[in-house]
Amino acid sequence: MRRIVALICFVVVVSPPLANRTTPAQEGTVMPEGTVMPEGTKMPEGGGATGIGATGESTVNPLQGVTDSLQGELEGPLDATEIAAANQWVSSLGIAEWLGPLAPVALSPFFGVTCLSGLSLWGPESVTNNALIGQNSVLRSQMLFWIFLALTLLTSIPRLTKVSKPFAQAVDRLEAYSVIVILLAVKFAASQTSGEPEIAMIQLGIFSFTADALLAIAMVINILVINSVKFFFEFMVWLTPIPLLDALFEVCNKSICAALISVYAFSPTIATVINLCLLFVAFCIFRWVSRRVRFYRTMLLDPVLAWLWPSHGRTDVAELIVFPDDEIGPFPPKARLKLYRGDTAADGWTLEEASWWRPDREVTIPSGSKPRVKLGWIINRIDFAQPDGELVKLCLSRRFDGAQLSEIIEELGMQLPEMDAQLNTGEMNAKELNKEFA
Questions:
Q1: What pLDDT does 99 receive?
Q2: pLDDT in the model for residue 209
Q3: Strand 201-204 to strand 207-210: parallel, antiparallel, or no bridges (unpaired)?
Q4: E strands within 295-375?
Q5: Other C-beta atoms within 10 Å of 135: how many?
Q6: Which of 15, 60, 166, 313 is a plausible cystine mate for 306, CB 3.0–4.6 Å?
Q7: Predicted pLDDT of residue 59
Q8: What is the per-residue DSSP string for 258-283?
């Protein structure tokens, strides 16, 4: 997160000013030739500095100085479409109208779109006077309202119980992505039917974007970040043994979503401020949350995927995907790492970040460390007692079966305890196991 924030600040600092930036013309004034000025005068053909007014007196164009300065800054002659686009840049974009409802939509995607569609259909005129839920909005459709209401029930009812909640969790990300596509389609349709000129280009470093494109990117990031944080807490609620907690969390989630939609109906600006506050909080804990979501997903899904697709439980590489319990070197807790042995026994073991798009970072565990492998019902563990007395605790999933895991452990220069090896190969029955623990 620190690198991303630093990169954004760097881009903002080194970026040149907005391309096509113009000084807003006086209200009611249009720059092209032959158009009527507010004072009732008409500019001469060719856009000169003077013209003949209705009384026959020579008049001076009050915007000639602005025009000359703009022509000096921009390459080529001024175009009426560019000037009109710059004048209507803020009003046509409607930032509050698009960012305001993103927080409730991120918390409950299908239910949020259902509420927006209901406002567009049956809300008062003061509410529907914006680009998202206006008269020409794609959301103004009764069929769309009923479809999303059905999808809301289909995805919300399974969240009420712990038995059916995994089904709802499985489609949670699909729900968020589908709503993103829908909102982008609504944004595109609104820009096509508004009849307003194209927004001027914005230059950020070596990249050029339209303002609509930047707003669309902001909408996608907003929904994904808030929805990811919500998904983590929903997953942790599912892991708790309290039965009614899942239903209570879902009711609270829908209630907050409806309350934020009501705030948006009252004031899109206030809703945008609330959304930005939630986004800031979500950004602060996003990396912490994403690491733990990846950890729990790996531990729970790896055995299932290995059972469904046996090839997932086979590998020819002597390495394991592990997650440290505590911070180790540059790696925070629950970071996804690769554990493998060095070229020689004296090189020890290496922990390397299991990511192809980030710089390689690694930590070496000395060869004198004593590894201890422990098998569990859901999570396996490898603990290294280093010569300096520090203990490195690593977690790994039950992706590999007994024979495959034993082979990998042996190639890594470690071995399973005798009892764990017998359990892994099925040589110890339940009666012997009870005696061993007794």
A1: 86
A2: 57
A3: antiparallel
A4: 319-324, 337-341, 349-353, 362-365, 370-374
A5: 10
A6: 313
A7: 46
A8: HHHHHHHHH-HHHHHHHHHHHHHHHH
CA distance 303 to 376: 12
* Contacts of residue 379, Cβ cutoff 8 Å, sequence gap at least 6: 299, 395, 396, 397, 398
Give me Rg for the CA atoms of the chain: 31
**CB under 8 Å to 144, separation ≥6 — which residues?**
117, 138
**Residue 395, SS3 per DSSP:** strand
Only one residue has tokens 């439980």, namely 313
Segment 171-177 long-range contacts (CB within 8 Å, at least 24 positions apart): 172/227, 172/231, 172/234, 173/231, 175/109, 175/110, 175/151, 176/106, 176/109, 176/223, 176/224, 176/227
pLDDT tens readout for residues 157-185: 888 888 888 788 777 778 888 888 888 88
**Around Cβ 3, how many Cβ atoms within 10 Å?**
8
pLDDT in tens, 339-378: 998 777 677 898 988 876 666 788 888 888 888 888 888 8
Tell which residue, 153, 178, 297, has the closest CA to residue 231. Answer: 297
Q: Per the structure block, which two tokens stand in for 232?
A: 């983590």
CA atoms within 13 A on the CB side of 355: 12
The pLDDT, as a whole number, for residue 52 is: 44
Separation of alpha carbons 343 and 404, rounded Å: 21
Half-sphere exposure of 428 toward its Cβ, with a 13 Å CA cutoff? 13
CA distance 247 to 433: 39
Using a 10 angstrom Cβ sphere, with 0-12 exposed, 13-18 middle and 19 or more buried, the burial of residue 72 is: exposed
CATH numbers and ranges of domains, the chain: 2-87 (no CATH), 93-293 (no CATH), 314-437 (2.30.29.30)
d(CA 429, CA 59): 105
CA 240 to chain centre: 26
Q: Round to whole Å and give the CA distance between 231 and 289.
A: 9
